[in-house]
């Protein structure tokens, strides 16, 4: 981590220590928790986090306050996840896949075409035993507590090269998260993946450093990628899940009543986010078309065929992948 970011985060924890009164040991004391979010202020994730903060406040009768820091104001997602163990931040909302460095199971969050469709995804990951099994495994491996799963929206591609089939990806320079599952996916599809911090994507597309990027639809709209891309390609290659992330020792050290409040609020806020995404997805596609993007709906069978033997790259996930597929 860069020294400047580390110093900034140390300052945050000092301020946090000064702002927390009594850690909820008495009924009239107020505990303050910092929640870090790397996505844009006002987007659907931020809205769900504001809902989470409101719910925590209500359920605790004002004795627990969650301060939401969106827009990466506390650092990148990597910085803030690293900041959980030293208690620089208390909560992070991010995708399960961002925990890959701590948990080999977390990679399944980015597994391409794992689910048949949106209904299959919701049934398995958001409301099923297999989804809970995945979250429990990631939590145990990474020393986290995870709760409140929510749908981020199907990942799609925005591009300056026309992609009407999987073959059209050959040689396309595409920004992908620095997570091995994503890198391998695009290599299998014939593209040239380039890891890049989210804050650099817009400029990278504008300057031609990359030809394309892939993200959920609302994220792509919220970051105005329609200004620097000609095509919206509905690949729907990944249904990714956001969760509320705590360090396990920190969370388990909280009073049981606070733990209960966090779990209830996270579940309700996660459901709020999922419904919001469902309502906004089709509308957002139309908005991007109105902004001048050409919407492409390629035949996905060609993508799936190129990824047919993809599981061999991640043998540790084979059992879970089979369980998900068996739940069709």
TrEMBL record:
GO annotation, cellular component aspect: outer membrane-bounded periplasmic space
Family: Belongs to the bacterial solute-binding protein 7 family.
UniProt-listed CDD domains: PBP2_TRAP_Siap_TeaA_like
GO biological process, one term: transmembrane transport
Chaperone listed as a keyword: no
Gene3D superfamilies linked: Bacterial extracellular solute-binding protein, family 7
Name of the featured protein: TRAP transporter substrate-binding protein
């Amino acid at each position: 981590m860069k020294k400047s970011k580390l110093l900034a985060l140390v300052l945050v924890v000092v301020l946090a220590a000064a702002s927390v009164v009594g850690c909820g040991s008495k009924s009239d004391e107020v505990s303050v928790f910092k929640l870090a979010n790397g996505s844009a202020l006002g987007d659907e994730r931020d809205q769900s986090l504001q809902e989470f903060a409101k719910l925590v406040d209500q359920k605790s009768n004002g004795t627990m306050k969650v301060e939401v820091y969106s827009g990466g104001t506390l650092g990148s997602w990597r910085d803030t996840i690293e900041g959980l163990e030293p208690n620089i931040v208390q909560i992070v909302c991010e995708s399960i896949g961002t925990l890959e460095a701590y948990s080999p199971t977390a990679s399944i969050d980015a597994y391409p075409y794992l689910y048949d469709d949106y209904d299959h995804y919701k049934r398995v990951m958001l409301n099923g035993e297999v989804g809970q099994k995945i979250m429990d495994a990631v939590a145990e491996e990474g020393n986290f507590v995870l709760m409140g799963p929510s749908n981020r929206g199907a990942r799609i591609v925005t591009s300056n090269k026309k992609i009407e089939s999987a073959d059209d990806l050959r040689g396309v320079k595409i920004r992908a998260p620095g997570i091995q599952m994503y890198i391998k996916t695009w290599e299998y599809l014939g593209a040239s993946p380039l890891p890049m911090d989210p804050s650099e994507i817009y400029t990278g597309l504008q300057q031609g450093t990359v030809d394309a990027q892939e993200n959920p639809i609302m994220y792509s709209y919220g970051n105005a990628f329609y200004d620097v891309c000609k095509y919206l390609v509905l690949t729907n290659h990944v249904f990714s899940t956001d969760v509320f992330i705590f360090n396990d020792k920190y969370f388990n050290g909280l009073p049981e009543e606070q733990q209960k409040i966090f779990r209830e609020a996270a579940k309700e806020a996660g459901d709020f986010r999922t419904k919001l995404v469902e309502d906004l997805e089709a509308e957002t596609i139309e908005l991007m078309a109105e902004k001048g993007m050409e919407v492409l709906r390629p035949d996905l069978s060609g993508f799936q065929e190129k990824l047919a033997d993809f599981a061999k790259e991640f043998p540790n996930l084979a059992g879970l992948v089979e369980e998900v597929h068996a739940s069709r």
